[in-house]
């Protein structure tokens, strides 16, 4: 698994030169999860950023009113990123993520990610712009789904 190739498939590197992607890939570690493994739980304090190389991940939220009830709100696939909320704001995880199948991920620790971006302003701008685009697309999709459910 070539970390640079994986990152090239991901929107987070849009606009980066090859040498920038190569340097960026150095902050990522490769991890594997088996089917059914919980990657992290809603409410946990963790702020790593993940990129999916291969696999499918369910994004699940749990009811605060009806204990034990849950809802899958998204399904993530190859090339998707997750963990960006906590990476950006340091808050607790907003959902539980579960590997639907054997899954290979790349993970960047919060401190490594921020140090890298602080030392490379141009790359920092590109990454933050790309994260903003990703979050905007997800928010618009969620708004549409809520609107469709309510109206």
Question: Which sequence of SSEs, written as H and E, runs from N to C?
Answer: HHEEEEEEHEEHH
How far from one another are the termini? 45 Å
- The CATH C-level name is Mainly Beta
Structural class: alpha+beta
Q: State the share of residues found in helices, binned by percent.
A: 25-40%
Mean pLDDT, to the nearest integer, reads 90
* Shape-level CATH architecture: Sandwich
What is the number of independent domains?
Answer: 1
Strand numbers in spatial order across the main sheet: 1-8-3-6
Unreliable parts = none
User: In angstroms, what is the radius of gyration?
Assistant: 16 Å
Topology overview:
Blueprint: H1 3-8, H2 18-25, E1 28-33, E2 38-40, E3 49-54, E4 57-62, E5 70-76, E6 81-82, H3 84-89, E7 96-99, E8 103-108, H4 110-119, H5 121-150
Antiparallel strand pairs: 1-8, 2-7, 3-6, 3-8, 4-5, 4-7
Core attributes:
alpha+beta, 40% helix, 151 residues, single chain, four-stranded antiparallel sheet, 8 strands, Jelly Rolls, 5 helices
Quick take:
The chain has 151 residues and is an alpha+beta fold. The protein has 5 helices and 8 strands, in the order H-H-E-E-E-E-E-E-H-E-E-H-H.
Description:
With 151 residues, the protein is α+β, with helices and mostly antiparallel strands. The protein has one domain (3-150): Jelly Rolls (Sandwich), CATH 2.60.120. Helices cover 40% and strands 26% of the residues. The protein contains five helices and eight strands. The protein has helices at residues 3-8, 18-25, 84-89, 110-119, 121-150; strands at residues 28-33, 38-40, 49-54, 57-62, 70-76, 81-82, 96-99, 103-108. The strands form two sheets. The chain has a four-stranded antiparallel sheet with strand order 1-8-3-6. The chain has a four-stranded antiparallel sheet with strand order 2-7-4-5, with no helix packed on it. A hairpin with a 7-residue loop joins strand 4 (57-62) and strand 5 (70-76). Helix 4 (110-119) packs across helix 5 (121-150). The longest helix has 30 residues, at 121-150. It is globular. The model has no long low-confidence stretch (mean pLDDT 90).
